[in-house]
Amino acid sequence: MSKNQVIETLKIADAGNGIRHVFVRDLLLTCIIGVHAHEKRGPQRVRINLDVGVFEGDGPHGDQLDKVLCYEDLVVGIRAIVADGTINLIETLAERVAEICLQSPLARSARVRVEKLDVFSDTASVGVEIERFAAHRMRAR
């Protein structure tokens, strides 16, 4: 796959369809995650990245926070998921993060990447990436 194909695949912002791109990069958290006994003994570092396709609306947002998807709300929600307790699979964590992203009626899609950073000494990370679409894909007002 060429570099241009990768960039096009990752494109979420789309002026033609009124979609804005809201993202969180490299959120580093620690959590109890994993199925093995040694993973349940203490927290592991995870890195979370997300991209959310958001409907821009029919008019200007008027510089008002309640007219846009707030990335602070996303980060607070993700921190709450991680603090809630033990998670067996990173796939489960990714699904829960996607649910947080898609709660807003403005959200159309979410791409979530969750990486465990300390699993193997000879890798930077291992993980999963998912993409989910909102059930309410009709235009929000």
Topology:
Blueprint: H1 3-10, E1 19-31, H2 37-40, E2 44-55, H3 71-83, H4 90-101, E3 107-116, E4 126-133
Antiparallel strand pairs: 1-2, 2-3, 3-4
Plain-language structure description:
It contains four helices and four strands, in the order αβαβααββ. The protein is an alpha+beta fold. The protein has one domain (3-133): GTP cyclohydrolase I, C-terminal domain/NADPH-dependent 7-cyano-7-deazaguanine reductase, N-terminal domain (GTP Cyclohydrolase I, domain 2, 2-Layer Sandwich), CATH 3.30.1130.10. It has a four-stranded antiparallel beta sheet, covered by helices on one side. α3 runs antiparallel to α4 (90-101). The chain is elongated and about 55 Å long. The N and C termini lie far apart (38 Å).
Question: What is this entry, summarized?
Answer:
The chain is α+β, with helices and mostly antiparallel strands and 141 residues long. It has helices at residues 3-10, 37-40, 71-83, 90-101; strands spanning 19-31, 44-55, 107-116, 126-133. The protein has one domain (3-133): GTP Cyclohydrolase I, domain 2, CATH 3.30.1130.
Please supply descriptive tags for the structure shown above.
141 residues; alpha+beta; GTP Cyclohydrolase I, domain 2; 4 helices
CATH architecture grouping: 2-Layer Sandwich
Oligomer: single chain
Cα gyration radius (Å): 17 Å
Query: What would CATH call the class?
Result: Alpha Beta
What's the number of extended β-strand segments?
4
CATH superfamily annotation:
GTP cyclohydrolase I, C-terminal domain/NADPH-dependent 7-cyano-7-deazaguanine reductase, N-terminal domain
Strand order of the largest sheet: 1-2-3-4
